[in-house]
Amino acid sequence: MQEIPDNFWSTGWGCAPSTIDGMQLHSFVSDEQVCTALGELQKNQEGASAKKIGTGVFLTVDGKGTNHDLPSLREYRESVSLIELFEKRYRDNEWNLMAYGLHRHSYAMWQFGAQIRNQVDKDSSSRPTGRTDIDAFVGRYSATFAGIHTDFAHNFAFTLSDGKTMHVMSPRSFLLYDWEDEAYYRESHPLIYKTDNLCYFPHDYFHCATTPDAVSFNVNIAIWESAYIVEGNSPDHTGGLYNSFVDSYTQLLIDQPYMVVKIPDFAVDKLGEKLVIRALKQISAFGMEVKTPPPVTLGIQNPSLSRIILAQIDGSLRMFANGHVLKLNRTTLPSSNELKAWILSDTALTSYLDQSIGIKINA
Fold first, then answer.
1. Per-residue pLDDT tens for 265-287?
2. CA torsion sign, 101 to 106 to 110 to 113?
3. Beta 197-201 vs 18-21: how paired, if at all?
């Protein structure tokens, strides 16, 4: 995928809304791949509340939940036909189709998220440590269903169908007044989502979208500024240690996709084995909280990204690869001079890398 330009990291990332022209993301992610991911997400959906589970496909009509009227989306492989379906049903209404978690059942969307997150981890001066989400929003409405809000996630928007304007405002401006909608839209910064650009706004910006004149279809890559390790009433009972751990070990993977490491006893004692494993799994998955789905041949073909971590954690040895975790039957790392030979000769390990996640260590 084409690299995000260097000047964005000094003028946009973390400090200002930005429009990045000429990214040509349609050459990396096809219309068909996005719509297929939408159908797969709906097929695998469980539960009835986006607020409860955080993933799934949800429909609102005139601001009210209407999932009981949501048709099967698996047969719609193009954004045009999907939009026509809903416009035919709701031509006299405002409607909004929201899909949370496109990466959970789509190899193409998972890799798309990995490409964006890898650039963020590599090029940003302030690296986020939270999760990576990929969501989609389709509809025609006077205001976002959630109203004016902030997500605490850096947001990149990729557009399949023009029509959406995201009105964003810095917290320094927003928190000074009680904003009426009309005044907010007048004073906020408009980001015009178009198929030939990539739009961005920082994690702490307030925002609300409108699509007054046309149905829009866009994909959001949300990268949360921090990880939240909830225990009791505390958003992070580790005192920031978990986020520091994620940042430190991500840094080690910037220049090479493979890492062999013994986790210090101090980190295991302070965080606990469970959180150490969670952090390494998150790092190997480029922040996405699911392992990479099985590869499929569909649409545009591109090189895949991988992160592999072989870690000794207290009395166990584990392999982390693209969100997958494998506990090995030995407890300590081999010496460095025999490590590569051991990995390449270990039938179970090399088979796991080749077959389970479609990657392997270069000989």
1. 999 999 999 999 999 999 999 99
2. negative
3. antiparallel
Cross-strand bridge partners of residue 140: 95
Question: Global pTM?
Answer: 0.91
Output b/e per residue, 240-252; b: 16+ Cβ within 10 A.
Answer: ebbbebbeebbee
The count of C-alpha atoms lying within 13 angstroms of the C-alpha of 332, restricted to the half-sphere facing its C-beta, is 4
Radius of gyration from C-alpha coordinates of the chain: 21
181: exposed, middle or buried (C-beta count within 10 Å: 0-12, 13-18, 19+)? middle
- Per the CB < 8 A criterion, the answer to whether 205 and 150 are in contact is yes
Share of the chain above pLDDT 90, in %: 67
CA pair distance 1, 112, nearest whole angstrom? 9
Residue 31 contacts by C-beta under 8 Å, 6 or more apart in sequence? 78, 79, 160
How far is CA 71 from its chain centroid? 26
206-210 β-sheet, strand order:
189-192, 165-169, 206-210
Amino acid at 158: F
What CA–CA distance (Å, rounded) separates 330 from 219?
43
Strands, sheet with 308-313, edge to edge from the N-terminal-most edge strand: 258-262, 308-313, 316-321, 324-327
Distances (CA, A) of 301 to 126, 187, 291, 304, 347: 31, 43, 20, 9, 29
- Residue 229's beta-bridge partner residues? 236
In sequence order, what are the beta bridge partners of 166? 191, 209
CA-based nearest residue to 259, from 321, 306, 311, 309: 309
